[in-house]
């Protein structure tokens, strides 16, 4: 809808703060998928049942803290994903799940795959589930970067901002994630430790 | 833009996979729930510009109270005996004003709403409840979802035949909460017997596919209705086989289809305990034991 695209995210958030109920719904509709996907993939299969709650908590936080959003510092998507990521890590802390700072990168993942990727088209639900399962098997930091980049359409600079790392680190995580996914989806077992 | 910023087929494939797996009905229910919760939250928390308006409301309340007292005096003087009716305006008047002003402008100057709780008792947020989710409508008039949200039947399961009912029930469950997991372990023998009846060949194939990490075959068998927690002669599930063979992707796939991590084999060892014994980081990640 052209009218919907014309209005800036920050303007919608301000309108919500001013009591415009429709503004928040429009903002939600723009980002709910990407936000939910990020939370869901970060949680992985074992914590999937917490995704709905964390998604809701994220949007309530957006509603409450809209006044603190500064579009000059970050895009709305980056701000939203920062909140969503924090909510997810808070959940892990509450559940006493061990969060590794950064999983060691294995050499196998560094090797570029020269073969053409069989992934140009996802033609079946089965294949889609395999891809998603492979993404969920990535180390959490690589997973977050990959999901934010490919599904959330954040730039590497924005991802670096969200995750609090240097752009080069974000870039490196994306590279590792892609390499591991290629291996995993090609049916190879990475030669990791 | 660097080469890493450039689109990659894997990025596109993942985005397509997410789009394909999206459940529009669930999304619509989620939308109603979230927007309803936000609306309740906005109502419960006072607007940020509340201080001046609150003073105003107190002033109005005071004026109304004075008017009420005057009215009561007049009525008492006239020996009119319906005092309770006259007394009513004082308290409700204030509540009414506060309620009307709750969603009112909270402009940019607003501090975080969380930090200003002098509000009346919070309206309970419609947190999700497992069964009533879809029926929950937002209390306020948020606009309807885009039309595509109404469409669904993407994930509509095929009509179950008698042998597959158990499979549909089992595969439909998400990863259970801890309490359920304990129960699951306790109830395992019953489920084992019911799942073991038909489908002998697919069951064996499921175990073999899991052990070999053949994802396509696994998903195909599960789609055909093979119970995800079907047991072999040792009372072991396909998930246990995947774990024993160190097949993280297969294990993750089975888990996504509702395989029980806390089911035990005949020796009383659970799939989780097997995973712990394997001590493999990738496997643990796939099982959600390590993010």
Question: How does this model look, in words?
Answer:
The complex is a heterodimer of chains A (193) and B (291). By secondary structure, chain A is mainly alpha-helical. Chain A has 2 domains: 2-94, RNA polymerase sigma factor, region 2, helix turn helix motif (Rna Polymerase Sigma Factor, Chain: A, Orthogonal Bundle), CATH 1.10.1740; 107-185, Arc Repressor Mutant, subunit A (Orthogonal Bundle). Helix content of chain A is 64%, strand content 0%. In chain A, helix 5 packs parallel to helix 9. Chain B has 291 residues and is mainly alpha-helical. Chain B has 2 domains: 9-115, no CATH class; 162-286, Serine Threonine Protein Phosphatase 5, Tetratricopeptide repeat. The longest helix of chain B is centred in the N-terminal third of the chain and has 28 residues, at 50-77. At the A-B interface, helix 3, helix 4, helix 7, helix 8 and helix 10 of A face helix 1, helix 2, helix 9, helix 11 and helix 13 of B.
Topology (SSEs and partners):
The complex is a heterodimer of chains A (193) and B (291).
Chain A: H1 2-6, H2 9-17, H3 21-43, H4 51-64, H5 76-94, H6 107-110, H7 125-136, H8 140-150, H9 156-163, H10 167-185
Helix pairs in contact in A: 2-3, 3-4, 3-5, 3-8, 4-5, 5-9, 7-10, 8-10, 9-10
Chain B: H1 9-21, H2 24-44, H3 50-77, H4 83-87, H5 90-101, H6 165-172, H7 178-195, H8 200-212, H9 215-223, H10 238-244, H11 248-256, H12 271-278, H13 281-286
Helix pairs in contact in B: 3-5, 8-9, 8-10, 10-11, 10-12
């Amino acid at each position: 809808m052209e009218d919907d695209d014309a209005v800036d995210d920050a303007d919608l958030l301000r309108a919500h703060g001013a009591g415009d109920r429709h503004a928040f719904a429009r903002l939600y509709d723009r980002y709910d998928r990407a936000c939910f996907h990020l939370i869901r993939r970060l949680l992985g299969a074992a914590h999937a049942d917490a995704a709905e709650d964390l998604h809701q908590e994220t949007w309530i936080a957006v509603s409450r803290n809209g006044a603190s959003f500064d579009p000059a510092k970050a895009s709305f998507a980056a701000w939203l994903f920062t909140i969503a990521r924090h909510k997810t890590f808070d959940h892990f802390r509450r559940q006493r799940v061990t969060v590794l700072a950064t999983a060691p990168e294995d050499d196998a993942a560094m090797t570029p795959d020269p073969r053409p990727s069989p992934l140009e088209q996802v033609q079946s639900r089965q294949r889609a589930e395999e891809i998603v399962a492979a993404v969920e098997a990535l180390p959490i930091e690589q997973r977050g970067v990959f999901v934010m980049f490919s599904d959330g359409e954040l730039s590497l600079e924005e991802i670096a901002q969200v995750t609090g790392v240097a752009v080069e680190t974000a870039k490196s995580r994306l590279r590792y994630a892609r390499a591991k996914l290629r291996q995993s989806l090609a049916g190879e077992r990475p030669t990791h430790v | 833009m660097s080469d890493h910023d450039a689109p990659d087929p894997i990025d596109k494939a993942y985005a397509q996979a997410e789009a394909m797996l999206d459940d529009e009905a669930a999304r619509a229910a989620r939308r109603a729930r979230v927007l309803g919760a936000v609306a309740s939250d906005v109502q419960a928390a006072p607007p940020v510009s509340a201080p001046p308006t609150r003073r105003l409301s107190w002033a109005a309340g005071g004026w109304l109270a004075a008017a009420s007292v005057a009215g009561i005096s007049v009525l008492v003087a006239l020996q009119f005996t319906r005092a309770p009716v006259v007394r009513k305006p004082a308290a409700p008047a204030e509540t009414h004003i506060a309620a009307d002003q709750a969603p009112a402008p909270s402009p940019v100057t607003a501090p975080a709403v969380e930090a200003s709780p002098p509000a009346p008792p919070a309206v309970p947020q419609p947190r999700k409840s497992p069964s009533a989710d879809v029926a929950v409508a937002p209390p306020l008039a948020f606009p309807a979802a885009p039309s595509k949200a109404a469409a669904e039947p993407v994930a509509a399961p095929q009509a179950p035949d008698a042998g597959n009912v158990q499979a549909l029930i089992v595969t439909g469950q998400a990863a259970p909460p801890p309490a359920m997991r304990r129960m699951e372990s306790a109830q395992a023998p019953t489920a084992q017997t019911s799942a073991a009846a038909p489908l002998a060949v697919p069951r064996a194939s499921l175990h073999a596919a899991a052990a070999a990490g053949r994802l396509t075959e696994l998903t195909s068998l599960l789609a055909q209705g093979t119970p995800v927690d079907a047991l072999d002669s040792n009372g072991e599930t396909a998930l246990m086989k995947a774990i024993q063979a160190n097949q993280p992707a297969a294990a993750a796939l089975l888990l996504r289809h509702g395989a029980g991590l806390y089911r035990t084999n005949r020796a009383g060892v659970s799939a989780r305990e097997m995973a712990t014994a394997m001590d493999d980081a990738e496997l643990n990640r796939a099982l959600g034991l390590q993010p």
